[in-house]
């Protein structure tokens, strides 16, 4: 295993420390563990908390800031945060308006966030939740019952976070987050695995002429292997699956071409070139495109494509100002 | 070679097409080749052009937009753009206030930009230039006489671009760009090579227990090999070299921890954790930190650290609004 790290058991701690030292104007760390919250607490409005295992950077700490999240909780690499961590995060950001938990659909995440939510409610904090399940590659997986939550989660952070910033109530922010979830679909593929530092070896083996189709974000292989193919061909497979799952006819969409960590921007742009062409031939209008590292799997060489079907409210909230370490919108 | 690409000879074209399709609000492509300019031409102020070979994404097209560049010229992967390309870029953005060329110090780049500048001057366009040479790893290299221009170039784009936006004259913008160059130092290291698509195989071989110290940004090996070491140890080597080259005593700095393309943000943050600690012990104050992909070498797993010694003018310009695909500042 070759990585720019020190002791394997310090990876998560040193990463969070390095993040708060990089962005003190945005985030600070709670004393109770790897939980980051906004440096300036948002008062009187619905607060948003998200998180999950480490290894998805910039998710989720990179999205803490004005217009997006109020707190991000980071478990060990690819491991759910504990209920105590989430609970401390909720307490740190809670206002009278309440707290929305944005949970990616993994059994451990859902269980631990829900437990934390109950602990907070027992103390009189209003808590609501949504569960993101945008991955069309699988119905059930090793990691979860139902579809997995992947890169589409970032759209939930952005749009629900923007609505919370307007002073909307908890039910409205929750409903908007759910509206994004109902309208976003994602699928990915990879050509090389990643190595969890504590494991010390790659999560799967893959031949030089093969790729994994339908990857998740925890270093697991895809739902099936394919012979290596062109960027356009794998993009077609992914778009077919996404467009077959939700009716995008005549709609406007936000596109996200996301790197799993090691895929260079050159290749993401080549993929986006074909995404844009395919959508144009199908009469689907691209409103806005995001290309880069949004929801990664450490150093996996892979990518995912997300399509969010937009309405006018979502467009306005997507365009609203955001100022976080990893997502800025003027 | 495993990559998300189509035909090898279409990599640069499809990448640029994918970029302008992703960000039409920021950039458009000229008909004459892989030159991108702002969608809205900046009028009456000094215009900035930069560029180089492809493979450094988001550099340089990602920095075209308000507060930074007006044009970016992309040659083939790791290959200087032609004088004609640069000349077309200059003509497209030229105003009466003149054009500043920000050139990274590589023999081909300098020669071709200078030739283009002369062609433009022959048509009455005022042209000035600066040459960035921030890499302290080498004195001369295969690629250039003198130090190479690497990630510090992004600080030149940001700070000189912000000054140009205020309406400052060409000599002042050039002088400010030079002031950044005089005060920025960079050095990098890598643990895996990258593969130029047209070459089809990695640029160098490296054993599982080795790393390259003093890499450039064109897939070349470092100035020497070392046994694999901890993130803190390689960070110490790099900081020693940078701090030994310029007197940063008592100053405020901007820090950039840059990924060569495949290094996950987890590792960049672990590196930054130690950068921040070392600078604190030396009494050097970190004013602002940038962590991510700024100047890459396709999918090299490597990183560089840049330190820019700031004065009050530079701080103000670094903080000025910028709105480009890859660099936003509210």
If you had to describe this structure to a student in words, what would you say it looks like?
Two copies of one chain form a homodimer. The longest helix of chain A has 17 residues, at 265-281. Chain A has helices at 11-22, 83-93, 107-121, 153-165, 170-183, 231-245, 265-281, 312-319, and strands spanning 27-29, 35-38, 47-54, 71-77, 99-104, 127-132, 184-192, 210-213, 224-227, 252-259, 285-292, 301-310, 322-323, 328-329. In chain A, strand 1 and strand 2 (35-38) form a beta hairpin. The termini of chain A are far apart. In chain A, helix 2 (83-93) crosses helix 3 (107-121), helix 4 packs antiparallel against helix 5 (170-183) and helix 6 (231-245) packs across helix 7 (265-281). The first copy, chain A, has a six-stranded mixed β-sheet, with helices on both faces. In chain A, strands 9-8-7-12-10-11 form a six-stranded mixed β-sheet. In chain A, strands 13-14 form a two-stranded antiparallel sheet. Chain A is 32% helix and 25% strand. The first copy, chain A, is built from eight helices and 14 strands. Chain A folds into two domains: 16-173, Dihydroxyacetone kinase, domain 1 (Rossmann fold, 3-Layer(aba) Sandwich); 184-318, Dihydroxyacetone kinase, domain 2 (Hypothetical Protein Tm841, Chain: A,domain 3), CATH 3.30.1180.20. Chain A is α/β, with parallel strands linked by helices. At the A-B interface, helix 1, helix 6, helix 7, strand 11 and strand 14 of A face helix 1, helix 6, helix 7, strand 11 and strand 14 of B.
């Amino acid at each position: 295993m070759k990585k720019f790290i020190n002791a394997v058991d310090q990876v998560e701690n040193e990463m969070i420390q390095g993040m708060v030292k990089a962005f003190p104007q945005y985030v600070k760390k709670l004393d109770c563990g790897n939980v980051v919250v906004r440096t300036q607490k948002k008062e009187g409005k619905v607060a948003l908390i998200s998180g999950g295992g480490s290894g998805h950077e910039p998710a989720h700490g990179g999205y803490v800031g004005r217009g997006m999240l109020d707190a991000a909780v980071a478990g060990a690499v690819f491991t759910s945060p504990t209920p105590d961590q989430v609970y401390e995060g909720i307490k740190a950001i809670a206002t009278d308006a309440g707290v929305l938990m944005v949970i990616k659909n993994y059994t451990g995440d859902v269980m631990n966030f829900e437990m934390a939510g109950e602990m907070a409610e027992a103390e009189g904090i209003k808590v609501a939740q949504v569960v993101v399940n945008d991955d069309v590659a699988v119905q059930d997986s090793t990691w979860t019952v139902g579809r997995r939550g992947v890169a589409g989660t970032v759209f939930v952070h952005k749009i629900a976070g923007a609505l919370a910033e307007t002073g909307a109530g908890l039910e409205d922010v929750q409903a908007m987050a759910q509206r994004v979830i109902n309208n976003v679909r994602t699928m990915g593929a990879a050509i090389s695995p990643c190595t969890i530092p504590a494991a010390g070896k790659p999560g799967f083996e893959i031949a030089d002429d093969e790729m994994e189709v339908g990857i998740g974000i925890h270093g697991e292989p895809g739902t099936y292997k394919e012979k290596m193919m062109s960027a356009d061909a794998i993009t077609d497979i992914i778009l077919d699956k996404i467009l077959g799952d939700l009716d995008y006819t005549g709609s406007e969409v936000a596109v996200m071409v996301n790197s799993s960590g090691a895929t260079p921007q050159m290749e993401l742009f080549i993929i986006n070139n074909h995404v844009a062409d395919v959508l144009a031939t199908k009469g689907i209008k691209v409103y806005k495109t995001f290309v880069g590292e949004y929801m990664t799997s450490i150093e996996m060489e892979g990518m995912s494509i997300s399509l969010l079907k937009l309405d006018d409210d979502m467009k306005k909230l997507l365009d609203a100002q955001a100022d976080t370490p990893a997502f800025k919108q003027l």
